[in-house]
Amino acid sequence: MTKKLLTVLSVLLLSAHLHAQPKLSENIVVITMDGLRWQEVFGGADSLLSFDTAAAYSTGYIGEKFWAPGADARREKLMPFFWSTLRKQGVLLGNRNYGNNFNNANPYWFSYPGYNEIFTGYPDTAVNSNDKIPNKNETVFEFLNKLPEYKGKTVVFGSWDVYASIFNEGRSGLLVNDGFRDLGGKLNEKQVWLNRLQYEMPAIFHGGERLDVATFQIGFEYMKVNKPKLIYFGLGDCDEFAHAGVYDAYLDAAQNFDDWIRQLWEYIQSTPAYRDKTTILITTDHGRGLAEGGNWKHHGQRIPEASEMWMAAIGPSVKPVGEAKTKQQAYQGQIAATIAALLGKQFTPAHKPLPVLKLD
Shortest CA distance to 258 belongs to which of 121, 66, 8? Predict the structure, then answer.
């Protein structure tokens, strides 16, 4: 599919979610969970994996905590915030059971190409590895950080130690806290403690990635203290536990993700600096394979389903349509232009990004 045709199709198919003049936000929170499948988001615990002793440390634990008859009941147990508050007040895209498709536009279906596509709007085929190569493409965060109202108020917190390269920390001047790195600057007592605590947690991902609880808490406390206008939380436990083939830990990570979004939303709505003027955008970097043959553990070009994704959003710029059931095709590359548009800006990098998502 050519980029021109992709752009035309995206504009035509997404018009249901965004009026020509959306209500603007003053702040944007982006939060991603690496490799969280659309199957769990929309269907809860997978029936083919929940009782497979080869796929879980404890199938009894899954049965007690996550199982229920029917996909709707299971998804509510797994992600209660998504399927209560967010469904009522926001939008969820990507339930392929209704032909509501959300995909990678890049051809690789793994992390760096996915995050590059999300934040640059450009499915660059030259971004084809997870190596720590400073990104040549400008992200929407770098673009906005050049503007006076966002300068120094645009920040990145990530579990994986490649985010500094994805956002090209050296060139962009963004505050990026990723991997096992201390947060610098003037810190309160809790922030000093969180810096220390990340090293006391098990380094179960071999030093290249800290547990998500450390990333979220360090970023959330920074948000409370410094009130940034544009903040990204890049989380990764789901992907790591899926690669390890531990389905119960993967489900726990998805539920933690849901609860952290609840905490963010409740804080936003209780804080004058953010209340009713902050939109949260939620997604993943890629999909994964099906349960059959153990392909749920994997992604990449050899796994046909690995480009299948999802997205959710909540906030003043979002029309509360709930679970989208219209047939359409959207791409993660549309998120970058959407972030800028919801702030009343037009993202104009050297490459032309994919068009704005229709959320209002």
Answer: 66
| Measured distance between the N- and C-terminal CA atoms of the chain, rounded to whole angstroms | 27
Distance from C-alpha of 161 to C-alpha of 123, rounded to nearest angstrom: 21
Structure confidence at residue 354 (pLDDT):
86
* pLDDT tens track for 296-340: 999 999 999 999 999 999 999 999 999 999 999 999 999 999 999
Q: Residue 6 has what pLDDT?
A: 41
Domains (range + CATH), the chain: 3-342 (3.40.720.10)
Mean of per-residue pLDDT scores for the chain = 94
Query: Residues in the chain, how many?
Result: 360
Number of H helices, E strands in the chain: 14, 10
The mean per-residue pLDDT over the stretch 96-104 comes to: 98
Rg (CA), the chain: 19
pLDDT at 26 over 60: yes
- Measured distance CA(151)–CA(159) in Å, rounded: 24
